[in-house]
Amino acid sequence: MNTRNKWGNRVEFGVFVLPAVVCILLSAIIPFVMSMYYSMTKWNGVGKHIKFIGLKNFKELLTSDTNALKALIFTLEYTLLAVVLTNVIAIVLAVLMTKAFKLRGLYRVSFFVPYIISLIIIGFVWKFMFTKGFDVLYDATGWGIFQWSWLGNADLAFWSILFVGIWQSVGFYMMIYITGLQSVPGDLLEAASIDGCVGLNRFFRITLPLLMPSITVALFLSIANSLKVFDIIYTLTFGGPGGATNSITMDIYNEAFVNNRFGYATAKSLVFVVLILLITVIQVRFTKSREVEA
């Protein structure tokens, strides 16, 4: 009887687990293994002829691909600024949105709505704004800033992409920090106020350390999303002008679908995955070590 029950439990467990295992195999493990193979081939992504070339793609990437190096520098610069500015602005907004005032819910929704809109749509909307929209604003105000080439100048294009990226995502991280602020014990803040710890002093000494779990999550998501930035660049500049806004993901896209070097693009994507993994693991360990409990 016990043996029969044991086998019955195993079969029941297998029935429930098997669909999830199959989905993971089809969506993650098998494609990853296939990518490892394709990264060691010379293939255009369409033809039947696939030539195995070993580690030559990785050798080319690490020794002679200047475009990949430029894309890496741009991506790291963008990620650093986007992560810092997005999280700082999100924390400030979260603090403001936890205050009691009229229409607080409406303001929260207005900040969060851009995050649920497709980045492709947002990119095209802002591309229209940076061109036609700013021309109208210049005619109305006469301010020279609206006549600048925001997408045609290399430096301005970077800041344009950064602005749109922050504008689109800041509401999501604001909601994460609002949840974290609401979990801070009120009696602890009240006790700190009685002891004379108020204002910014109380925020940095009491609130911010207790907000570290939310900061860990927000930093993890913002770093991963910033490193993978693609949609905004694709719609606003397509990596231009002159490759000045060419990110790693954009570079991989060009190699695969413009230059028809699918094998080489796959090698780049695998290296990129390892880079994201290393950065996020270091970030999570660093911020986790600084979390405190109330």
Task: Tell me what the structure shows.
The protein has 294 residues and is mainly α. It has a single domain, classed as Orthogonal Bundle (MetI-like fold). It is 76% helix and 1% strand. The chain has 12 helices and 2 strands, in the order αββααααααααααα. Strands 1-2 form a two-stranded antiparallel sheet. A hairpin with an 8-residue loop joins β1 and β2. It is globular, with a radius of gyration of 24 Å. The termini are far apart. The model has no long low-confidence stretch (mean pLDDT 90).
Describe the structure concisely for a colleague:
The chain has about 290 residues and is mainly α. It has one domain (about 65-290): MetI-like fold, CATH 1.10.3720.10.
Distance between the termini: 50 Å
CATH architecture: Orthogonal Bundle
Give the proportion of residues in helices.
over 70%
Structural class: mainly alpha
- Strand content range: under 5%
CATH superfamily: MetI-like
Largest sheet: 2 strands, antiparallel
Compute the CA-based radius of gyration.
24 Å
Number of strands: 2
Order of helices and strands: HEEHHHHHHHHHHH
* Strand arrangement in the largest pleated sheet: 1-2
List the helices and strands and how they pair.
Elements lengths: L1 H37 L2 E2 L8 E2 L3 H8 L2 H32 L6 H13 L2 H23 L12 H29 L3 H9 L4 H12 L1 H16 L3 H6 L11 H11 L3 H27 L6
Antiparallel strand pairs: 1-2
Subcellular location: Cell membrane
Membrane topology: Multi-pass membrane protein
Keywords: Cell membrane, Membrane, Transmembrane, Transmembrane helix, Transport
